[in-house]
Amino acid sequence: MTGIDASYTVEEEFKRSSDFLRGDLSSDIANDEPSIAGASEHLLKFHGIYAQDNRDVRRERSLAGESLEYIFMVRVAIPGGKLATDQWLALDKIAEDLADGTIRLTTRQAVQFHGVLKGGLRPMASELDAHLMTSFGACGDVVRNTVMCPDLLTPGASDRLVVMADHIARTFKPATRAHWEIFVNGEKGASSEPDSEHSFYGETYLPRKFKIAIANPRENCVDVLAQDMGLIPATHEEFGEGFNVVVAGGLGRSYAQPDTFARLADPLTFVTYAEVDDLIRAVLATYRDLGDRTNRRRARMKYIAADAGFEGFRHEIEERYGQKLREPFALELADADDHLGWRDLSDGSLQLGIRVGAGRVCDGPEGRGLRSALREIAQTLHVNFLITAQQDILISSISPDERDVVERILAVHDVRGVEQLGNVERSALACPALPTCSQALAEAERRLPNVVSLVQDELDANGLGKRRLQLRMTGCPNGCARPAVAEVGIVGRTKNTYDVFLGGGLRGDRLASLYQEKVKLDDLPEVLRPLLERWKNEGLEEESFGDFYVRVVAP
Ligand code: SRM
Ligand code: SF4
User: Fold this and answer.
1) Cβ–Cβ under 8 Å, residues 202 and 12
2) 299 and 248, same structural domain?
3) How far is the CA of 439 from the centre of ligand 2 (A)?
4) 359, 385, 420 - which closes a domain
C-alpha cells in the first residue's frame, strides 16, 4: 500500500505512515512540552494513553492567559479483569507515585489511571511491564480488553474457558514491538527483528475499536449484546463444546450525527474451540475491509451490518471464513448477576464481591478506605482480584479460615458490605466524564451518589425501596457505562441536562428508548414518580421496572 484513499480520515494516514504505531512518539514523549498533539496524540491511544487536560481549571486558566493543565489517562488492559496480588500492589503503587492516587476500574474490567504527567508515562509502562501488564492495545483501533464473566475464571470453571480471555488478548494484540521500544526499553535496538503486523490488522489496523466479551450462559453480567463480538459457551449435540457467537453490537451514538445509533448484536453461528480463532480472524478481516474509514463516528462494525443487512454481512464473514457458517442457537439470556457479597467457590475457597462506586478505588481524606483495605489484603493474603464489568472488585480464592482477616481489614477501613447498600446504589454505573473526559457534555461519576440517593428516596417514598432498579449515567451519548441497555439510562445532553432513557433491563437483551429529553437532575424524581407509581400498582409480582415499562407504558 503506497497511499490511502483521499476520502479517508486523517487518522488513517497517521496509522499508515506510523511504521507500525511508532511515528514520532519517541521524540514527542521525550521533549519538554507538557502534552502531545497531532499524529502522535492519535498514535498514543494505541499505547493505551489519552492526552487530556483538567477541565475543572480550563476556563480560569485560559482567562488568566495560562496554558491548560495537561494530564494523561492511561488504561491498562486486563483480560477478563483477573489480577494476582503482586499486580494489584503494582497498580496501587502506580496510583500513588504516578497518578492521582486513585485506581479507576472500568466497565470493561480494565484499570485507568488519571492525572498522569508526561514524565510518568515511561516509568509507568516499565512498572506495568515488570508485573506482566501493559496499556498497549487498551485503546486504539484494535481488539480491546476482552471482558469475561468472573464465574468463568474461578475454580470449577472449564479449563478451556478459564484461559479464553488471555488467549484472545495474546492472539489478537498487535504484533508490533513499538510499545516496548518507545515506552519500556528505549530506542529501537539495531538487533531488533523487522516489524510486521497481523494480516487482519495490516498497516492501517481496524477502522475503529473492536470489543469482545465472553459471557456466562447462565447470566449476562458482561452485556454480551453490546459488543462487536460475543462468545457464549454452548454445547452442540453433533460438534461438541464451543461458542454461540453474536456479532455487530455497539452502543455509542453522537448527537451531531443522527445516523449513529445503539445496536444489539445478532446471533451469527456456532463454532467449536478449535474453530473460534479462525472465526474471530474472519470477522476482523470483514471489519477491516468493509468498515467506514471516511467517518470515524460511523466506523464501528455495527454499521456494516445495519447498512448491508445482517444476512449480507454474515455472507461477507462466511466468504472470509472460507466455509459455510453453522446456524446459531436461539439466544436465551438471563438476568445479570452482580457477583457481590460472600460466595462459596467449588474448591472450598471463598469469594467476596465489593461494590466500588463508579469504579473509583480510593481512600477518604483520613487515609482510610477501599484502596488501603485492598492493599492490606493483597499484602496479607494470597488471593486473586477480579474486576467485573459492573466496575466492582471481587477478592477470590480466600481460604475459609481467612474470612475473619478480610472482614476485619474491611471494617477497619470502613468498607461497606453489600447488605449495607441501597438497591439503586448496588448496581448503578457511571462513566468518568468531567473533569478528565474531553467528550463529556455533563457530569456523571461525580454526580452519581447524588442521583442514586434522589432515585432511592423516590423508590422508598413509593414503598418500592426493596426493589432493584438499574441506573446508569454517562456524560455524553458515547455510552461508556452502557446506559443504552439500562432500565434507567441518564445521558448527558448539555452542561445541566440529561436525556432519560427507559426500558432496558438486567438481561441486557433490549435497548432502552428515549423517554424525556433535557431533564435537570433535580427533576429526575418528578419525572420517574408517575412511572414508579404505576409499576407499584400495575406491575406483576417480581416484574422488573424495565420489563414493566415495555409491557405497559411503551409496548
Ligand atoms: Fe468509552 C471514548 C471511558 C467503556 C463507548 N471512553 C471514551 C474515552 C476514552 C473518551 C475519549 O475518547 O476521549 C473515555 C475516557 C474518559 C476518561 O477520562 O477516563 C471513555 N469507556 C470509558 C470507560 C473508562 C467508562 C467507565 O466508566 O468505565 C470504559 C473503559 C473501557 C475499557 O476498559 O476498555 C468505557 N466506552 C465504553 C463502553 C462500554 C463497553 O465497552 O462495554 C462503550 C459503549 C459500547 C461501545 O463501544 O459501543 C464505550 N467510549 C465509547 C465511545 C463511542 C464509540 C462509538 O461507537 O462511537 C467513545 C468515543 C470514541 O471512541 O471516540 C468512547
Ligand atoms: Fe466521556 Fe462520554 Fe464516555 Fe462518559 S460516556 S466517559 S462523557 S466519552
Assistant:
1) no
2) yes
3) 6
4) 420
Give the model's pLDDT for residue 191: 46
HSE value, Cβ hemisphere, 13 Å, CA-based, for 304: 25
Residue 442 CA: which ligand 2 atom is closest? 7
Ligand 1 and 478: CB distance under 6 A: yes
The reply to whether 370 and 440 lie within a common domain is no
State which of 478, 490, 501 you would mutate to test the pocket of ligand 1, scoring each by most atoms of that ligand within 8 A of its C-beta.
Answer: 478
Q: Is 476 in the pocket of ligand 2 (CB under 6 A)?
A: yes
CATH code of 257's domain: 3.30.413.10
Question: pTM for this one?
Answer: 0.97
Q: What is the mean pLDDT of each run of 10 residues along the chain (555 residues)?
A: 80 96 96 96 98 97 95 98 98 98 98 98 98 98 98 90 96 96 74 73 97 97 98 96 97 94 98 98 98 97 98 98 96 96 96 97 87 98 97 98 98 95 96 98 98 98 95 98 98 98 97 98 98 97 97 95
- Ligand 1 closest atom vs CA 110: 33
Q: Which domain holds residue 308?
A: 145-175+206-337
Alpha helices in 381-523 (DSSP H): 403-412, 423-427, 448-461
- In this structure, the answer to whether residues 244 and 155 fall within a common structural domain is yes
In a domain, 369, yes or no: yes
Q: Is residue 254 part of a domain?
A: yes
Q: Which atom of ligand 1 is nearest to the CA of 45?
A: 9
For ligand 1, whether the C-beta of 110 sits within 6 Å is: yes
Q: Please check whether residues 480 and 345 belong to one and the same domain.
A: no
Residue 56 lies in a domain: no
Please state the atom number of ligand 2 nearest to the C-alpha of residue 438.
1
pLDDT for the residue numbered 461: 96
Kind and range of the H or E run holding 151: none
Q: 432 in ligand 2 pocket by Cβ < 6 Å?
A: yes
Select from 281, 304, 337 the last residue of a domain: 337
Output the CA 421–ligand 1 centroid distance in Å. 27
| Sign of the torsion angle spanned by Cα atoms 496, 499, 500, 501 | negative
Give the length of the chain.
Answer: 555
| Contact of 255 with 276, CB cutoff 8 Å | no
What pLDDT does residue 257 have? Answer: 92
* Nearest alpha carbon, ligand 1 atom 59: 478
- Flag whether 322 is in a domain: yes
Q: The domain that contains 358 carries what CATH number? A: 3.90.480.10
Both 165 and 231 in a single domain? yes
CA distance 340 to 352: 7
How far apart CA 360 and CA 453 sit, in angstroms, is 18
Q: Are residues 409 and 499 in the same domain?
A: no
106 lines ligand 1 (CB under 6 A): yes
pLDDT for the residue numbered 188: 53
Q: How far is the CA of 331 from the centre of ligand 2 (A)?
A: 30
Ligand (nearest to CA of 492): 2
